[in-house]
Design brief:
It catalyses: di-trans,octa-cis-undecaprenyl diphosphate + H2O = di-trans,octa-cis-undecaprenyl phosphate + phosphate + H(+). The chain has 199 residues and is mainly α. Helix content is 73%, strand content 0%. Helix 5 runs antiparallel to helix 6 (123-142) and helix 5 (105-120) packs across helix 7.
Length: 199
């Protein structure tokens, strides 16, 4: 039943050879490049965040992301699922290795990030990232490299990653933050002294 729904939703979203060229180009940009917002935001918030709580957000989000991607890899090994093009289903418009598709690494990454911001930053920032995640999820199904359930799997794994990070924070938070601050101040001593980045 779930697989039938997965295939039905895929065919409803997936582009065809008759799809508009501009829409395929837009989807390709979203599918390949929009995920760069994750590392860019992490670096920007750490270097120029307005207060110390921002670095707590960065660290909790980073731990959630590592946990979510680890769970995603384990799930892929335990429950391998071929990509649509690997079984000749639908139309493919984005080059991709025929590795396991579930859950989506792109979906896991952006949804973990969005859920982390909803939980530990501001609702509006998390919703904005959730909308970006929705666009990435659509684009990768539209271009034929993922199933809709791959993206739902990424969302669920992102929830687990955030839950783990929150529950484990009392044990790892303070010592890890202290260590990272020391390493950062050592490596970035010159930019900090010149005022280019925050101490």
């Amino acid at each position: 039943m779930t697989e039938e729904l997965n295939r039905m939703l895929f065919l409803w979203i997936n582009a065809t050879p008759h799809s508009a060229a501009w829409l395929l180009q837009l989807a390709t940009f979203i599918a390949k490049d929009l995920i760069a917002i994750v590392p860019l935001l992490i670096v920007a918030l750490w270097l120029w965040g307005p207060h110390s709580a921002t670095r707590v957000l960065v660290l909790k989000t980073g731990i959630a992301l590592l946990c979510a991607l680890t769970i995603s890899w384990c799930m892929g090994q335990l429950f391998p699922h071929p990509r649509p093009f690997a079984i000749g289903f639908g139309h493919q418009f984005l080059a991709h290795a025929p590795d396991d598709s579930w859950p989506s690494d792109h979906g896991t990454t952006i949804f973990t990030f969005a859920l982390a911001f909803i939980s530990w930053h501001r609702i509006w920032s998390g919703i904005l990232l959730l909308a970006i995640g929705g666009a990435i999820a659509w684009s990768r199904v539209y271009l034929g490299v993922h199933w809709p359930m791959d993206m739902l799997g990424g969302l669920l794994v992102g929830m687990l990653g955030c839950l783990f990070s929150q529950l484990a924070w009392p044990w790892y938070g303070e010592p890890l933050m202290k260590y990272l601050q020391q390493v950062y101040r050592l490596l970035f001593s010159v930019p900090i002294r010149k005022g280019w980045v925050r101490n």
